[in-house]
Every structure is written in C-alpha cells, then in structure tokens.
C-alpha cells in the first residue's frame, strides 16, 4: 500500500484525512514535509489551489486528489481536518466555511483574519459549531518555548524588556532545502522613499514575519492593548524595526532580511532577576526545535533542542484537538493575538510612513 | 628597564577600577604609592573632574579616570594640556583590548544602511549615566563618533537611545539592569551581505571578548586576548608618561558629555 494513502496507522487511532486550501510555497515547503513526518497520524486527502496545474502537481507528490474548488474539499467526507494556506485575505472566509462544514479541526496560517471583526465572527462560528481552530504561529508550538513557559516562574510579572530579533537570509535559501518549489510569488523592488510603500512594507513585515513572535511578546504584556509606539522604521534591504512601550514594559521587535547567510531568530525577555533567551531554527527547514535558556543568579538552565519544531508541534496538537482534546489557546487568545498584531502593524506602518514624509519635506 | 611608576588611588577608585589587581599584574611597570605625585586613579563619580584638576595641581604626572559620568571637563582639559599631563579614561567595555581588531571587522563590513545595535546588561543600582558614556565610547571605537542621540525610554532600570554617528550610521543603544547574568555588552551590525557580532564579557574578569565577522563566504573570529580593560588602560597611561605623550580621551569625552548631558537632562555645571 502506498504510505501516503493511509490505512497504515501505527498509533491505533484512525488516520486523519487532511484537506489543504492553497498549494503555494508554505504548503510545499512546510506542511507537506511536516506531514511526511507524521504518517502514523495524518494522510493528505485533497489539495485545492486556484491554479489547477499547481493543485494537480502538488497533490501528485503525496498521491492525493486535487481540485480548484474549496467546496469540493469541505464536502469531502475523507477530509477530517482542514489546513488553510491561502493568501491572507481568504483566511477568514475559509475558516468560517470549514467550521460550517463540520470538520474536526481547522489549522489556519497566520494571520487567521485581517480585522478584529473578522476574528470575532470566526470565534463565534467556532463556538457555535464546536470546531476548534488552531493558528499556525509555529513558535507557540515549539517544544523549546513550551519548556521555557513551564519553567519561567514569575517572569511574566517581572519582565522589563522584551525583544524579538529576526535576521534571515532570503526564504528560498531554506525553501529549496525543504522541497522543490514549483511556484513562487514575485515582489516589486522596494521603494524606500515612497511613504505608502514603506507603510506597506512595515505592515507586511509585522503581519508576515513579526507575527510569528507577537504571541510570545504578548504573553509578557498584561496590558497589551495599551501601546505607546516610540519608533518604527523600515530596514534595508528588507525588514522593520519597531520599539514600543506597554505601560512599564519596553518592547523591541525587529527583522532584517538580507543576503547574510547566517540566520539568527532570537527572542529575549529581561527581568531584574531573570533572563529568557530562545533561539529558534529558521523557517521552512525541519532543523529541530528551539534552544531556550533561563538564566537566574548566573545559573543557566537549557531546554532543547527537541527533535521536532513548532511546525510539527502544531500538527500534533491539531491531531489531539481533532480527537477531542482542548486546544492550549482558546478563541479569546487567538483574537487577542490578532488584535495585538493588527494594532502594532497599523501604528508602525503609520509612524514609518510619517518618517519618510518628514524626511522628504 | 624603565623605572616603575607609583600609583595612588582612593578607596572608591581602587575598588571600581580593580587597581590593586592591575598593579599586581604589572609589577615591573607599576607600584603602589601613598603619594599622589605620579599616577593617580580617580573614580568617575559626580565631581570627578574637580578631583582630577586637584590631582594635576598637586603634581600628578598621569591620570586615569575610571568609568566617568558625564561632566564638564573643560578646565581639566586645559590644565592637563598646559602641564603636559596625560589623562586617560578607563571604560569598562570600550577599553577592552580586542577593540582595535574588532573595529577592523566593523569597517570591513561596509553597508551604508546597516543598523548598529549595542545592548548592555548591568547590575541593578548601577549608574546608567556612566554606562551610556561607555556605550558612546564603544560605538566610537568600533564605528564612529555619535553626533545626535534621542532617548526613547529612560528609567532607573533601563534605557533605549537611538543615535546617529558622524557618518550617518543608525545606532541603537540599550541598557538593562539585571542580576541574571554578569555585566556584558553585545554589539551587532547588520548589513545587506553580512554582519559583525562583538560580545564583550564582564569587565571585572580577563575573559576575552569574541568578535565574529560574517561575510558571504563564511565567518571568521578574532584571536582571544585575556587582558582586562583596566590593565590595558594603565599600560597605555604608563607608555604615554614614559614617552611624554598626550591622550585625546578628554576631548572625545567632552563631545560625548555634551550629548549625553542634554539627553539625560543632567546639568554639566556650566
């Protein structure tokens, strides 16, 4: 029997059929290789993409069926769980449709909506239908983060300074080691002198990259809706640099995407008596889990690296919730994470574009 | 063999500058002295410029100011120049012996839009106005003189300052008070094709700084130097005294001091 077609489960529980909406680089380089590590739990039942050739080609890799129609996926009784990997603006509509279709669980790439109103509507449908939703913020599922969380004691109450720092080479450097990508979106060259373009770059950076770690940042901000933006700039050749205060907490989130080959994806929390530092592995590749350190009184405890990272962690949790477990993050948390990210994106985009306008004046 | 130089320092300077340890590690060059007539170590607490001026008027032939706070040093500078007395500044981080070689890495990584970030952790209760002077000196030694600076956040436990160097480089200076780890400075410049990382450990030890240059073809690290910033600074002063040389530390300090004074709202005593 072909291993992709299922029926060879080793865990005792029936395999969960997966339907995937959107067959771009994230599906090709992240989710399919991840599912290949979890063949005792999942089988890919159907892949949908608006481009029939891409849908067919990607589906053929995992011996699944393909379609260009979302409804075909949602109506398929072989599809137990749905992964939404389409462009951002389709997410909300597709999550709602998957819930209404009565699937066992939904995994949506971040952000799972583009407005807070959409997020609240999704939460209401999830509550009404009983279909749990997970958002693919992979670092929140990383064993390194989870181990630190279980051991950091009162760090959340005592944090002084929280920092997310992402230094990444271009995505293809990792995508091309994770799969053989057959389609890649193209982007226009950046215009750093155009205020509107800068606003889009910063907002896109927050919602496309910073959003991986904003749920981690929010975990240390009891008043996350009270934000005083101090600085926001676009980084060259790509990225953003944002500093804000939330009452007594200071936060810096920055990313630089360049030709620098050495990735460094770090998250730090400084308190007067404790330091948390986590180094995550780059996106796309399955390079294992993060390494987290908790340092207190010059003593350092290390967690990780685990064999699996957050990509696999999110699918493992999806399996658990599809089989009846409670998700670790409820709808209220997902809405709060999204509202926080949207707020930071709006504030930072406005500030960065104003800087450009002021410089030009 | 040159004659050893007598070192006089008050209790605070001896403690903050590890002066007894320095003398023990330079037994040929230095010896302790109870008279302030040769080399004098002065703690950089508020009022240090007056103490230093008095030391020069008292006959000192060389001065070290340890980790000074921003202060008006114009009169001191004039007196030192008039009498030919070298005055050097002992910065805990910027005085690290790896600094000149690390600076070569920073200048090799030419990228006009690169961000230079410097994060320092310090003990709670430490004087952040002294720490930022050290950070200014660190940036100057590695990349260039800071010309403008703005404090985005400043409390008794942390600060974030954005700045620009004379070459237009964007700089971010951050300081955090914590007992979690020993004091340390981490400097990083992120360019389009590579980066430089420079980590300076606790200045109270001779643990070496680590500098790494990342280029498109790989990464390289500097050889390690097991010497404290304090010891190197005293060696520099002794050489200046023996050679009859002058130091430019005070003029650079004066420029930093005016920027930091405005930044922190401190009075410079004018």
**Average pLDDT, all residues of chain B:** 93
Cross-sheet strand order for the largest sheet of chain B: 7-8-9-6-10-11-12-13
Any idea what the CATH superfamily of the largest domain in chain A is called?
Dihydrodipicolinate Reductase, domain 2
Helix and strand sequence of chain A: EHEHEHEHEHEHHEHHHEEEEEEEHH
Greatest interface: A-B, 31 and 29 residues
What descriptive keywords fit this protein?
A: 361 residues, alpha/beta, Rossmann fold, Dihydrodipicolinate Reductase, domain 2, eight-stranded mixed beta sheet, six-stranded parallel beta sheet, 12 helices, 37% helix, globular, B: 270 residues, five-stranded parallel beta sheet, 33% helix, disordered C terminus
Polypeptide structure, described:
The complex is a heterodimer of chains A (361) and B (270). With 361 residues, chain A is an alpha/beta fold. Chain A folds into 2 domains: 127 residues, 3-Layer(aba) Sandwich (Rossmann fold); 221 residues, Dihydrodipicolinate Reductase, domain 2 (2-Layer Sandwich). Helix content of chain A is 37%, strand content 24%. An 8-stranded mixed sheet of chain A has the order 8-9-10-7-11-12-13-14. A 6-stranded parallel sheet of chain A has the order 3-2-1-4-5-6, sandwiched between helices. In chain A, helix 1 packs across helix 8 and helix 4 packs parallel to helix 5. Chain A is globular, with a radius of gyration of 20 Å. Chain A starts with 15 loop residues before the first strand and ends with a helix. In chain B, strand 4, helix 4 and strand 5 form a beta-alpha-beta unit. The C terminus of chain B is likely disordered. Chain B is built from 8 helices and 13 strands. Chain B has 270 residues and is α/β, with parallel strands linked by helices. An 8-stranded mixed sheet of chain B has the order 7-8-9-6-10-11-12-13, with helices on one face. At the A-B interface, strand 7, strand 8, strand 9 and strand 10 of A face strand 8 and strand 9 of B.
């Amino acid at each position: 029997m072909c291993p992709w077609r299922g029926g060879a489960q080793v865990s005792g529980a029936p395999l969960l059929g997966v339907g995937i909406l959107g067959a771009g680089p994230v599906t090709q380089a992240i989710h399919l290789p991840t599912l290949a590590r979890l063949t005792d739990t999942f089988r890919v039942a159907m892949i949908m993409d608006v481009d029939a050739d891409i849908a067919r080609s990607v589906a053929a890799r995992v011996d699944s069926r393909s379609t260009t129609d979302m409804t075909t996926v949602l109506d398929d009784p072989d599809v137990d769980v749905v992964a939404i990997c389409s462009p951002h603006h389709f997410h909300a509509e597709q999550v709602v449709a998957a819930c209404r279709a009565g699937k066992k669980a939904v995994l949506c790439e971040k952000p799972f909506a583009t407005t807070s109103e959409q997020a609240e509507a999704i939460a209401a449908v999830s509550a009404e239908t009983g279909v749990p939703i997970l958002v693919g913020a992979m670092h929140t599922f990383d064993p390194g983060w989870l181990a630190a969380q279980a051991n950091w004691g009162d760090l959340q109450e005592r944090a002084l300074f929280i920092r997310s720092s992402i230094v990444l080479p271009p995505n293809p450097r990792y995508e091309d080691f994770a799969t053989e990508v057959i389609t890649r979106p193209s982007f226009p060259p950046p215009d750093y002198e155009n205020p509107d373009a800068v606003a889009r770059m910063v907002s896109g950076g927050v919602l496309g990259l910073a959003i991986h770690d904003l749920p981690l940042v929010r975990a240390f901000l009891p008043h996350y809706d009270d934000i005083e933006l101090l600085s926001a700039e676009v980084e060259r050749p790509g990225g953003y640099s944002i500093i804000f205060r939330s009452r007594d907490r200071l936060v810096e989130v920055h990313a630089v995407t360049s030709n620098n080959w050495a990735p460094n994806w770090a998250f730090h929390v400084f308190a007067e008596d404790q330091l948390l530092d986590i180094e995550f592995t780059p996106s796309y590749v399955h390079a294992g889990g993060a390494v987290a350190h908790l340092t207190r009184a010059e003593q350092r405890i290390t967690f990780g690296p685990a064999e699996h990272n957050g990509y696999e962690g999110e699918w493992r949790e999806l399996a658990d919730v599809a089989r009846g477990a409670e998700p670790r993050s409820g709808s209220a948390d997902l809405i709060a994470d999204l509202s926080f990210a949207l707020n930071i994106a709006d504030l930072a985009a406005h500030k960065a574009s104003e800087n450009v306008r002021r410089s030009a004046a | 063999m040159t004659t050893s130089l007598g070192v006089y320092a008050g209790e605070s300077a001896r403690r903050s500058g590890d002066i007894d340890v320095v003398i023990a590690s330079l037994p040929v060059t230095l010896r302790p002295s109870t008279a302030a007539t040769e080399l004098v170590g002065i703690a950089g607490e508020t009022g240090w410029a007056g103490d230093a001026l008095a030391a020069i008027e008292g006959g000192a032939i060389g001065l070290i100011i340890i980790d000074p706070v921003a202060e008006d040093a114009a009169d001191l500078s004039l007196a030192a120049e008039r009498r030919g007395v070298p005055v050097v500044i002992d910065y805990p981080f910027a005085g690290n012996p790896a600094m000149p070689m690390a600076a070569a890495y920073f200048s090799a990584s030419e990228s006009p839009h690169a961000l230079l970030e410097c994060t320092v952790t310090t003990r709670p209760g430490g004087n952040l106005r002294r720490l930022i002077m050290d950070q200014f000196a660190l940036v100057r030694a590695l990349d260039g003189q800071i010309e403008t600076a703005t404090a985005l956040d400043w409390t008794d436990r942390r600060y974030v300052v954005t700045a620009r160097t004379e070459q237009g480089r964007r700089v971010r200076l951050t300081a955090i008070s914590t007992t979690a780890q020993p004091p340390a400075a981490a400097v990083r410049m992120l360019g389009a094709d590579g980066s430089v990382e420079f980590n300076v450990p606790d200045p109270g030890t001779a643990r070496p700084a680590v500098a790494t240059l990342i280029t498109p073809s790989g990464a390289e690290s500097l050889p390690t130097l097991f010497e404290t910033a304090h010891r190197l600074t005293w060696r520099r002063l002794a050489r200046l005294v023996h050679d009859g040389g002058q130091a430019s530390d005070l003029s650079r300090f004066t420029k930093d001091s005016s920027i930091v004074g405005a930044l922190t709202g401190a009075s410079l005593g004018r």
